[in-house]
Amino acid sequence: MKRDKVYRLFLLKGDRKTADAEQKYVKQAAADHPKGRWTDFHLPEPHAYLWMPERGQDESGTDYLLRVRTWGRRWADKARAVPGSRWTLTDLEWHDPEAVRALAESFLLNLYVFDTYKAERKAVPELAAVEAEGFSAEALADLRVRADEVNWVKSLVEQPVSALNATAFAQEMAAHLKPLGVSAKLWTRKEMEKAGMGGLLGVNRGSVDEPSFTELVYKPADARNGKPLVLVGKGVVFDAGGMNIKTGNYMDDMKTDMAGGAMAAGIIALAARQALPLYIVALIPATDNRLNGNALVPGDVVRIGGETSVEIVNTDAEGRLLLADAAAYAQKRYAPAALVSMATLTGAASRAIGAKGIVAMQERCTEDMLRCLAQASEDVQERYCLFPMWPEYDSELDSAVAELKNCGSGAAGMITAAKFVGYFARKTPFLHLDVAGVAYYGKDENAWKKGATGFGVRWMSRFLELWSGTLK
Length: 472
Ligand code: BES
Ligand code: ZN
Ligand code: MN
Prior knowledge:
This protein is of the alpha/beta class. Helix content is 37%, strand content 19%. The protein contains 13 helices and 18 strands. Residues 34-44 have low confidence and may be disordered.
């Protein structure tokens, strides 16, 4: 019934001197839509006003654009109150293209909600057009592609383990990626055993489900890198902690512990859809971390990549074991140009900077890479903070019985976790992203809605675009 209407969201300057302009446009809009009822500034009338915030004098571009994105989220909430509604953003007197773009993208990202299990599934509203100077239809199409992939990532993260075990996760990624021109190999258990994936198989010992290992390869003919960039994503489809079972409410959101894996898949999907001239591989080891009579216990020793022995001190430090197997395989098979691991790896990351940004650590990354990371973060307004990888942390992982133990004393937990994974990537530039604090929001906050966020996909995707530019 409401489908024929197009809701117009007018973007106005932040100060009240626009009253005249407002009058003018209300009249014009009323003339354009003689049947529309223009009674007030409220929905469900077919128009609404948004006084765009103006950039403060001392405000950085990112601070400001994040504020704009917060409005995008709020307006998406309003739009969703009218299921299936169609929206046009109309830039009346607002000429900051970055602000209009940030608003439009945030609107698109936040229109999506996970309602698979709701009795009433509401049609997602649509952003039909952005009427702004210099904002082409292609620009909107680009934003849609990005938002679609991020929203796909979110939908995976939201699925409970009963619907998305390790095998289903692998199959879902393959089904999504293959039509985009990305090859997908799902490993058999035999192959994992042959590669000596003692970390993945060890964690899986406590599970009734099979583990999975997904190898996604995007290799365009015009790739500018000979050796691939390898993404490694943690795919723990549920983290009960294993024998060191999680207590209190620490287990509540652990269906989201495959967010790093979904993120890696989303990044490679976007690269393919944007036809980036980059050779990229994504490796996603997956299992749940539960417990039964055969589960890994503290004191057990596993072998990563068939070689490196690791003493298990705590079965809840499982993600790094999966990442290590994948990194060891990447090293042998691909000798990567760089390895980027991404994971909901430690509570320490979340405690350090909260839900405001990604905790990042790096070793041997080139100046070019670091510059592109910083630029990309500014471009898409996803924040990160680099933590140190000083050699003094290394001894935290010394084991009396094996080459390494799987966790340190607890201090700087996100760093010792990165150190553990980095041990298996020590021949390449290594970037590690701990997304434990940002992958899943407990409440609406800033630009992000409660629930899975897809945080970091846009950042990495923009990074790859910028970085590919430096390889020419
Ligand atoms: N998946 C958790 C980390 C996590 C915590 C993610 C909160 C998202 C929100 C990870 O496997 C874990 O349990 N880490 C332990 C490591 C510890 C045992 C060394 C942690 O951070 O407590
Ligand atoms: Zn975990
Ligand atoms: Mn854990």
